[in-house]
Design goal:
There is one protein chain. This protein is of the alpha/beta class. About 45% of the residues lie in helices and about 15% in strands. The protein has 3 domains: about 200 residues, Rossmann fold (3-Layer(aba) Sandwich), CATH 3.40.50.720; about 80 residues, N-(1-d-carboxylethyl)-l-norvaline Dehydrogenase, domain 2; about 140 residues, NAD(P)-binding Rossmann-like Domain (Rossmann fold, 3-Layer(aba) Sandwich), CATH 3.40.50. The protein contains 18 helices and 14 strands. An 8-stranded mixed beta sheet has the order 3-2-1-4-5-6-7-8, with helices on both faces. It has a 6-stranded parallel beta sheet with strand order 11-10-9-12-13-14. It is globular. The structure holds uridine-5'-diphosphate-xylopyranose (UDX). Uridine-5'-diphosphate-xylopyranose binds next to helix 9.
Length: about 425
């Protein structure tokens, strides 16, 4: 099929490359010329495992092109809108200006029978409003909402082999569902569950899923606070409750909490939308989920102050990790970077490191000292703070690491180290909700 993808960020660049990999003819559009130039040269503008390979192979076939000109989307049968919906300045609501601008710029280029497919995460009610706009300005086209559940770090796999497909379509619009079936034929033939529903449900599926995941993480983090107060161990607790299939062990890792470009802003936008709908109390618990999450960052900072005897001033602190999770260079709302910035604000000599996230972190917080070398970061440290669980940090050898630092003190902000092994090597180990 001929496909356009409007917006080539973490979501759109992967989606465009994956669609071309599946055999479709794709044009990716973005207003950022630098990003488009990189993608056109088959160079991913961000770190995402597997993306360089599919970007290269799809570009080589000639099926994948990139452009800054929306007119190049004309003639496509399907237009995916994958632009960002960040948190609006000074409010918890989502900023829909990019979505609205993308739709308006696309309207004059819609061919007869074209299907516009929203992928961006939007407040419930947005699709119905945009469908009206299409009916008015381009009645020969239609709209579907097809939320995306990809995780950064696994985005290529999640796009090529999704665990479910959700299509929100207009009333009686069987055409939209059959077009999307065609787009995703490979996944459908592989037995991927597919749910065809209305716009509002499709929009809600996405935010409900993220709200549930955020709640699960904050639940275990709340348990870690109780564990700290009682001498219990939150990891053993998570293992034990996780054996109950109704609960499940995944997303029950206590630590410095969730961040990134999705969960934090999505739960805030969801709460803001519920308030607009007069149902604020239904989602009031998400405010608590957010508060627990932000408290975890403060807990790590407080642990650092305690571990250093009451003040971090002029102490050298090695912060391991700045990206919001491993296998990503994304530092948006990163708990790890937040901890580094707070410690620096308290007067610590912070040296932050990350296998992929240093450049993005430096662009946001140039006041911090960075190195891409773990050894360099560790050298002479009075305290080590592990806040993103990259494999190479999990695999650190306590004896060898002990030779690099000035003092053997570590905060395991992700509860991933074998504390007994580290203690045996002479380390003071501090965790969240761990004995
Ligand atoms: C999330 C959703 O998982 C995905 O389905 C949606 O499409 C976009 O938002 P992503 O932001 O890539 O994906 O990250 P995810 O893997 O969900 O992790 C989110 C945050 O939660 C990370 O900061 C991670 O470190 C943290 N986390 C995750 C925990 O603190 N504990 C856990 O047990 C799991």
């Amino acid at each position: 099929m001929r496909i356009s993808v409007i917006g080539c960020g973490y979501l759109g660049a992967v989606h465009a490359s994956a669609m071309a990999e599946l055999g479709h003819e794709v044009v990716g559009i973005d207003v950022d010329d630098r990003r488009i130039a990189q993608l056109a040269a088959a160079r991913p503008p961000f770190f995402e495992p597997g993306l360089p390979e599919i970007l290269r192979s799809a570009t080589a076939t000639g099926r994948l092109r990139f452009s800054t000109d929306i007119a190049d989307a004309a003639g496509a049968e399907v237009h995916f809108v994958a632009v960002g919906t960040p948190q609006a300045a000074g409010s918890h609501a989502a900023d829909l200006s990019h979505v609205d601008a993308a739709f308006e710029s696309l309207l004059p280029h819609l061919a007869d029978g074209a299907l516009v497919v929203g992928k961006s995460t939007v407040p419930v009610g947005t699709a119905a409003r945009l469908a009206e706009r299409i009916a008015e300005a381009a009645p020969h086209a239609s709209l579907a909402w097809n939320p995306e559940f990809l995780r950064e770090g696994y985005a290529v796999k999640d796009t090529l082999q999704p665990d479910r497909l959700v299509y929100g379509v207009g009333e009686g619009d069987e055409h939209a569902a059959s077009v999307l079936d065609h787009v995703y034929r490979a996944a459908i033939e592989a037995g991927t569950p597919r749910i065809v529903t209305d716009y509002a449900t499709a929009e809600l599926v996405k935010v409900a899923a993220n709200a549930f995941l955020a709640t699960k993480i904050s639940f275990i983090n709340a348990m870690s606070e109780i564990a700290d107060a009682t001498g219990a161990d939150v990891t053993a607790l998570a293992d034990a409750i996780g054996h109950d299939a109704r609960i499940g062990r995944r997303f029950l890792n206590a630590g410095v909490g969730f961040g990134g470009g999705c969960l934090p802003k999505d739960i805030r936008a969801f709460t803001a939308r519920a308030e607009e709908l007069g149902r604020g109390e239904s989602l009031a618990f998400l405010r608590e989920v957010d508060a627990i999450n932000l408290r975890q960052r403060q807990r790590v900072v407080d642990l650092a102050v305690d571990a250093l005897g009451g003040s971090v001033h002029r102490k050298r602190v090695a912060v391991l990790g700045v990206s919001f999770k491993p296998e990503s260079d994304d530092v948006r709302d990163s708990p790890a970077l937040d901890v580094a910035v707070q410690l620096r604000g308290l007067g610590a000599e912070v040296v932050a490191t990350d296998p992929q996230g240093v450049e993005n972190a430096r662009a946001r917080h140039p006041q911090l000292e960075y190195t891409s070398s773990t050894r360099e970061a560790l050298r002479g440290a009075d305290l080590v703070v592990l806040v993103t669980e990259w494999r190479e940090y999990r695999a650190l050898d306590p004896v060898e690491t002990g030779r690099l630092v000035a003092e053997r003190r570590i905060i395991d902000g992700r509860n991933v180290l074998d504390a007994a092994e580290w203690r045996a090597a002479g380390w003071q180990v501090h965790g969240l909700g761990r004995r």
